[in-house]
Amino acid sequence: MPSSDSSDPAAIFAIATSLWKECYKHAATDRSINLSDAYSGMDGFMRVIMRIAAQFEAWACKHVNFDELTDVWPYLLEDRFGKECLSILLAENLSDFDEHDCCRVAARLRLTFR
Fold first, then answer.
1. Taking the mean position of all CA atoms in its chain, how far away is CA 67?
2. Which of 11, 25, 100, 107 is deepest in the core (most CB within 10 A)?
3. What's the farthest any 2 CA atoms get from each other in the chain?
4. How far is CA 33 from each of CA 27, 67, 96, 100, 111, rounded to the nearest angstrom?
């Protein structure tokens, strides 16, 4: 899992929580989504979510101008990350999340870049 010395564990937890909740919300409304099958079990699903959380936080530490934030970083992520992430990737395709997607989600969150 990518991480950085400056990564905030609260932010990583917030990202994972937000994404987990949003995926379950989508799966509850769309019966064709089977998260367990898509990720070879729920433990695989959680590993993917944690990888995304650590990757996005490490990426943000390098690219986001936190001085421009008006929201508390972990709260912003918990409130919005999952929704914005699933606006660019399907819940069953999160294994494909990469650095390009970090930038896309950050743009959807309207973050200011360095």
1. 21
2. 11
3. 42
4. 5, 39, 16, 24, 30
**Length, in residues, of the chain:** 114
Question: SS3 for 64?
Answer: strand
Tell me which DSSP letter residue 113 carries: B
Indicate if the pLDDT at residue 26 is higher than 70: yes
How many CB atoms are closer than 10 A to CB 65?
10
Q: DSSP string of 3-54?
A: --TT--HHHHHHHHHHHHHHHHHHHHH-TT--HHHHTTSHHHHHHHHHHHHH
Of 41, 45, 57, the closest CA to residue 1 belongs to 57
27-80: pLDDT as tens digits = 899 989 999 999 989 999 999 999 999 999 999 999 999 999 999 999 999 999
Instruction: Let me know: does 52 contact 106? Beta carbons within 8 Å.
Output: no
DSSP tally for the chain: helices H, then strands E: 5, 0
